[in-house]
Design a protein that fits this description.
123 residues, five-stranded antiparallel beta sheet, 2 helices
Length: 123
C-alpha cells in the first residue's frame, strides 16, 4: 500500500510506501500501535491529539492526528486534520472538511491520471 502525491503543474507523482512511514503503525495489523503512538495533551477535553512515530526509525518522520468529539462520527471521534513532519523537519498539514460517514465510495475515487504520461506520441 502506498500514498501518492500528484502534482499536475509540474507533471510529478511521488509514491510513499505506507509501511515506511508513521502511517504504517496505524494500518499494519502486525504492528502494535501502542509502541508507536501516544496521546498528546491538548488542553481541550473535546480534542484529542495522537502522535505516531517509530523511535527505532526516526528517518520515517512523525505524524500528529487531531480528532474532535462528534457523535455522528465512527467511534464518536472525527479526524479533522493531521500534521506530518519528515526527517528533514519539513512540516505538511492536511485539513479535512465535509466528512461524511456510511456512504459508498466508488473505486474510481482512488485513481488518478498520471501526468508523467504524454498524450502525444513522439515523432
Amino acid at each position: 500500500r502506498s500514498l501518492y502525491v500528484v502534482d499536475y503543474e509540474v507533471s510529478q507523482v511521488e509514491r510513499w510506501p505506507i509501511k515506511n512511514s508513521p502511517l504504517g503503525a496505524l494500518f499494519d495489523p502486525e504492528r502494535d500501535v501502542k509502541r508507536f503512538g501516544k496521546l498528546v495533551p491538548t488542553g481541550n477535553p473535546d480534542v484529542f491529539s495522537v502522535e505516531v512515530r517509530d523511535p527505532k526509525k526516526p528517518e520515517f518522520g512523525m505524524i500528529n492526528m487531531i480528532f474532535v468529539r462528534n457523535p455522528a462520527a465512527p467511534g464518536g471521534l472525527q479526524l479533522t486534520h493531521w500534521v506530518a513532519l519528515d526527517a528533514q523537519n519539513h512540516r505538511t498539514r492536511v485539513q479535512l472538511s465535509n466528512q461524511r460517514y456510511g456512504i459508498a465510495v466508488a473505486d474510481s475515487a482512488f485513481t488518478f491520471r498520471d501526468p508523467r504520461r504524454s498524450t502525444r506520441r513522439p515523432g
